[in-house]
Every structure is written in structure tokens, then in C-alpha cells.
């Protein structure tokens, strides 16, 4: 593996790590303005399992046009990078379907975490919007994949440190 490819791969993994840290901070730790208004008032544990219910309510009951738009588009945009990084960094996720399923699994885990450990709303609409974002990111990746060289050589393995393609670096 050439030095340039190694540096590019390291850079991609570093950006992915920063993205994941930001994603987990935003979805699990940062307080949001759409926090739960459950039976105990602000901060009660709450959830929505009816698709498009909260999207409808945000659209109808928000005092401004821009607030729901920012929240809805934000949920989509937040997961677009995941749809790009997953097939770029994981060879087993090289189809749009696999990327979308992996993104859906991560989004589901985040929603379950929010319901269990935080005072935020676990919402099926967030899951749907997040999956839409991952799918958009995957489409972007596969559209540009053959137009921009970002894949490592076929013999790349992050655990192998020699330039040998046979895996056997012993000298005879």
C-alpha cells in the first residue's frame, strides 16, 4: 500500500470518528427544543410509534414556517455523512440496501437510548427521516464512487502492515 493511500485512509477514518462523536453528542447528550412534553410536563419520558404523526404536528402547530423545516431537514442531513462513510470504510457495506439497513439499525439504537436514558422523545418519524438521510448519503457515495478515486487497493487490510499481497511476510 502506498503512503498516500495510507494517509487518505487514516484521514477518512479520522473524519468518520469525529462525525460519529458529533452524531452521538447531538442525538444523546445535547438538549433539543423538541424535548418531551409528557404527562409530567417538560422532560417526561415520551415516544411516538405512529408514522408521520409528529411531522404532521410539527407542521401544523409550529408558530413559524422555518422551525419545523429546520427540524425535519436537520434529521435528514445529520445522517447523510453516515451513508457516505459506511460503504467507503466497510467493504461488507457496499450496497445501498446494506448501508440503509446499517443506518436504520444505528438510528433505532439511538431512539431506544433516547427513550431509556434521556428526557427526549423516541420517535418513529426521526427514524424514518434518519434512514432517508443515510439512503441519500449512500446514493451520493455510489454516484461518485467511480468518478473519484477513494477506494483502497483490493488487497488492503487495516491489520496488515506489510506490502505483501499474499499475507505471508516471512522471508525464505
From TrEMBL:
The keyword Transmembrane helix applies. Residues 16-144 form the VanZ-like domain. The chain crosses the membrane at residues 12-33, 71-89, 96-115, 127-144. Keywords: Membrane, Transmembrane, Transmembrane helix. This is Glycopeptide antibiotics resistance protein. The keyword Membrane applies. It comes from the Bacteria.
Amino acid at each position: 500500500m502506498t503512503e498516500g493511500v495510507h494517509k487518505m485512509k487514516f484521514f477518512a477514518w479520522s473524519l468518520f470518528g469525529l462525525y460519529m462523536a458529533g452524531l452521538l453528542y447531538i442525538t444523546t447528550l445535547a438538549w433539543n427544543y423538541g424535548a418531551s412534553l409528557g404527562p409530567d410536563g417538560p422532560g417526561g419520558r415520551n415516544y411516538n410509534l405512529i408514522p408521520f404523526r409528529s411531522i404532521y404536528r410539527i407542521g401544523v402547530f409550529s408558530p413559524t414556517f422555518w422551525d419545523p423545516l429546520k427540524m425535519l431537514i436537520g434529521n435528514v442531513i445529520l445522517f447523510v455523512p453516515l451513508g457516505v462513510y459506511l460503504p467507503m470504510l466497510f467493504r461488507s457495506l457496499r450496497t445501498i440496501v446494506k448501508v440503509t439497513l446499517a443506518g436504520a439499525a444505528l438510528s433505532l439504537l439511538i431512539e431506544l437510548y433516547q427513550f431509556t436514558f434521556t428526557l427526549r422523545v423516541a420517535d418513529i418519524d426521526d427514524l424514518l427521516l434518519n434512514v432517508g438521510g443515510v439512503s441519500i448519503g449512500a446514493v451520493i457515495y455510489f454516484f461518485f464512487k467511480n468518478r473519484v478515486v477513494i477506494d483502497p487497493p483490493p488487497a488492503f487490510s487495516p491489520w496488515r502492515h506489510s506490502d505483501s499481497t499474499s499475507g505471508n511476510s516471512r522471508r525464505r
